[in-house]
Design goal:
- The protein is α/β, with parallel strands linked by helices and about 375 residues long.
- It has twelve helices and twelve strands.
- Helix 3 packs parallel to helix 11, helix 4 packs parallel to helix 5 and helix 6 packs antiparallel against helix 12.
- About 45% of the residues are buried.
- The N terminus is likely disordered.
Length: about 375
């Protein structure tokens, strides 16, 4: 039973009780004059009209409240309204990394195209299909799902809803599907550039990586690319690479493990640490920052100078996947009638050095500047074999 119907029935019951109470009143009421009875009847009629008006208003308010709670105002059924919903992988839209970058892209669609936007944060991987279905039930035009783990649920929903367009971030498409675009990136290239920089700035010849799970191919690509970059710029350097031991539900949301793993690497003489694992990696960056400049850190996915300010004391750059513009470009093309399908390869690169522009030697910066276009063009192999 809806909330509004329950309230209406309650009001009818209250009215019945009032009528019963009037029927059992004093005999003085029965002895009143005809004029008084007529006047009372008129007043009662006016009050009844007012009561019904109030009841209608209360019912309308209740229906509006229900709509707000359900997130459905009917707007998405209008062909003139673009509705874009985002479903995160297990994690938050303010994870300062992967999910946040995708959500920033959806928010830009709101600013640039007037889209109605919303998000659902997945708490458990068993909820992927349910969360996607919530947007489908509301007639959303585009659903953006974030993360490799959502790939299967995204394709299943797309097959059942051919009129809805899906963007799967980090979801490689083995076969082209008419209403699905997989936004993928050459993470190995970004990792390679980060590794090359680490190899050039390390003074101990020991660098480290704190990573999410190896169950996710992009994480493996970052890891192997980073190792290839270190070997390219400093063959004598050692790389300590550590994956989170947990599964998809926990590997990217464990900053305490990230911090303790970074601390172990520092204790083993590492002076540059790459954190690539969502909140887990952020924990590593924050731990390195406690070294007060004696060790460097490198962020991932977005320019984490902006998103993880606590890492600024050590953050020399970030290995970026330009997720935000990738999401915007795909949906804009779809709205223009040229919807990308299959795999859409987004851009990668290193973030600005920010305050470390005066710390990192000019010669090192020049080497990275020269190397970058060669790596991005594929002229320098990264060592990653998917």
């Amino acid at each position: 039973m809806s909330k509004s119907l329950a309230k209406f029935l309650a009001l009818l019951a209250a009215g019945a009780l009032l009528l019963a109470a009037c029927g059992s009143g004093d005999t003085e009421t029965e002895d009143a004059s005809d004029d008084e009875s007529t006047e009372a009847s008129d007043e009662s009629s006016e009050e009844s009209d007012e009561d019904h008006s109030d009841d209608d208003a209360m019912e309308d308010d209740a229906m509006e409240d229900d709509a707000m709670e359900d997130g459905t105002d009917g707007a998405c059924a209008d062909e003139e309204v673009l509705c874009v919903g985002l479903v995160t992988d297990v994690g938050k839209v303010d994870d300062k990394s992967f999910n946040q970058s995708a959500w920033a892209g959806v928010q830009q669609l709101e600013a640039d195209m007037g889209a109605k936007v919303d998000f659902i944060e997945t708490q458990d991987s068993t909820d992927y299909a349910t969360n996607i279905g919530s947007f489908l039930d509301q007639d959303y035009d585009v659903v953006v799902t974030v993360g490799f783990a959502l790939g299967e649920a995204t394709l299943a929903a797309a097959a059942e809803n051919p009129d809805t367009y899906f963007v799967g971030v980090d979801q490689f498409q083995g076969e082209e599907v008419a209403n699905v675009a997989g936004l993928i990136f050459p993470e190995d290239q970004a990792g390679f550039l980060a590794g090359a920089l680490a190899g050039l700035v390390t003074e101990t010849d020991v660098v480290a990586q704190v990573l999410g799970t190896d169950l996710v191919p992009p994480v493996v690509a970052f890891k192997e690319g980073f190792e290839g970059g270190v070997a390219y710029s400093n063959p004598d350097a050692e790389v300590i690479s550590t994956y989170h031991p947990g599964g998809l539900d926990v590997a990217f949301g464990d900053p305490d493990w990230g911090a303790s793993t970074a601390r172990q690497a520092i204790d083993n003489n590492a002076d540059v640490i790459f954190g690539a694992g969502g909140s887990t990696g952020n924990g590593a960056l924050a731990e390195v920052a406690k070294e007060g400049g004696d060790a460097f850190c490198i962020g991932v996915d977005t320019d984490q100078w902006e998103t993880v300010p606590e890492a600024q004391p050590c953050l020399i750059t970030s290995a970026m996947k330009l997720i935000t513009p990738g999401v915007v470009d795909i949906v804009a093309a779809q709205q223009a009638g040229d919807a990308p399908t299959g795999n859409y390869v987004g851009d990668v690169g290193l973030a600005d050095y920010h305050d470390f522009g005066d710390v990192i030697d000019a010669d090192v910066q020049a080497q990275i500047a020269e190397l970058t276009p060669q790596v991005l063009a594929g002229d320098v192999p990264t060592g990653y074999a998917p």
